[in-house]
Amino acid sequence: MQKSVIKRSEPDEHGHWGEFGGRYVPETLVAPLDELTNEFMRAREDPNFWSELSQLLRDYCGRPTPLFHAERLTAYAGRAQIYLKREDLLHTGAHKINNAIGQALLARRMGKRRVIAETGAGQHGVATATVCALFGLRCVIYMGAEDVRRQALNVFRMRLLGAEVITVNAGTRTLKDAINEALRDWVTNVHDTYYLLGSALGPHPYPLMVRELQSVIGREAREQIVSATGKLPRALIACVGGGSNAIGLFHPFIADGEVRLIGVEAGGSGDSLGQHAARFHDGTASGGGQIGVLQGTMSYVLQDTNGQIATTHSISAGLDYSAIGPEHAFLHDTGRAEYVRASDAEALEGFQLCARLEGIIPALETSHAILPAVHVARELSQEDSIIINLSGRGDKDVQLVADLQPQ
Amino acid sequence: MSRIRDTFAELKHSRRGGFIPFITAGDPDLETTELLLVELAAAGADVIELGVPFSDPVADGEVIQRASERALGKGVTLSEALRCVSNAKAHVDIPIVLFSYLNPLLKFGKDRLAEDAKRAGVDAVLITDLTPEEAGPWIRALRGRGIDLIFLVAPTTSDERLTRIAQQAHGFIYAVSRAGVTGVRNEVPRDAEPLVKRVRAVSDLPVAVGFGISTAEQVRQVWRFADAAVIGSAIVSEIEKLADSPRAGKTHRPVRSIIATGATRWVRTRRLARQKQVLYVFVSITSAQNSCERLHWFDVRAENLKSS
Lengths: 407, 308
What we know:
heterodimer, A: 407 residues, alpha/beta, Rossmann fold, six-stranded mixed β-sheet, four-stranded parallel β-sheet, 14 strands, 41% helix, 19% strand, globular, B: alpha/beta, TIM Barrel, 13 helices, 47% helix
């Protein structure tokens, strides 16, 4: 694809961003996806939908979230002013609730009484369980056995909120397998079940819908940074698993060509296939991130040379996924956004840096964005500013990090 | 006219229901698959569906998921699955449908697939997660080499969409019997017959019904309103029982033969059931001591079952 600065990033009516996105699903799911698309398109044009959503986002979730000038982190980096978009201060502790509450409103409009969702780190599961409690909907969460182990606190939170948590033992026992099980549930129970997908991936309309619901992050940040500094930031930095927090921050800035959009993928523990979750890393002889289809959408997918989906590794459950949302693939190939990697070790360093310099313990997912942001800040001047999306708080990861400390 | 259409025309002419067993390539190993293709054909299958193993089979229930895992555990590839077909085709002449998820085919390449599948003797390809909207380039590549792309329809498919699918379809139409994944069910779902009727209203193509068909009684029911029944999980679980037996690990010839014979006898009895009006019930009795003795067959007179 030709690298020219794009001014917009909108899919066609079938959810394609260029060759990416679309809908690759078993036939049974086409009708419910059409139904969902129609309802979402209607809601999108309905002022009542947005007014109810913004009221809930304000009164229940705590929006707008602050844009915080991280002065000590700025001093540490030594150049550009670093701002943190504090999604960690939202109810349930991460940006995930922006999407969950919007989709729960849709489920209610559609008369679906049972909601299912997948979760990796557990943040989306907690957000979904929360909104289901709020709206009185039945809630079933699928979670990989490996993630259940490393995010035990979130499993307990979901159960407290009345959700049924189903442990998935298939495949790699992580997010990908949780999505497979959720899709199998949905295909079986389409008549009464709403699938509340948690990231900007999956079949159309999910990547578009999740982006629309998360774009509140970028809209707020844009106003806040302009009001604080009188101009646009030079760069936005966010971690990218499926990519919902990143696309939510990036999207309102797409047309601002001077603002660099930087996504940070999980570099894991090494360069070989299976040791990382960096989908834009085209990899080694054994395979890497290449264009493919996983779970309903065409995007960059970590796979072996036979098209089998590769296992991934990341210290953070939320980034541990083999594919990336299709809009990110489009932004990557058009050159509008850049994607870098941070290893497990760099994420841990970012985690501690943010805790010690700013008194904020970020989620391990979010922690991946800290060191790359410091590097970007160092290339700029003191008059410039950059924004890190502080997408979630790290309480859920404290035990895991404690276990990694030398005794 | 394609091989598939010939087969269905012949079935219609002789007023028989078609029998389409499904097995996964490389489950439990490639030699067994090759043997199974030959044996299933000899046992009287009309068409065989050969599954290409995939790491993330979202449309499949546990039985076929595990079959994929067994095959992938052995590192089975699409090329090897095609070689199985090619080797089997040297012995038997039976239409073969390659049944796959999109990503392994995408990685292999459309044109290369069309070329290699043709050479191997594959007659049709069914791609579980490829909807007609995204299928254009695949239809062109495959049909260019005389291979049919088979489409699925489901109880949730609207009439309008059914018409569009029918316009693009060749070979036969695969009707998914119910919303859900593959796997053994107790009865033929009520959705199946109305769906087949809706397909008939918009298409002259033969209709095969699959997903959840596992017993002779269900096959007989399906034959009353559709042209063929697809049996997957019920056969694959027989393969699994034998593949998991202590002696199968050594994969010597006799054990492979037992697996092949076990699965094909399953098919054969069901065909006999049709012809002789006698129902056979296949019971496999687990005997850890001697896996060769694991297969036992009991015939039950149709009268006995009719009353139940």
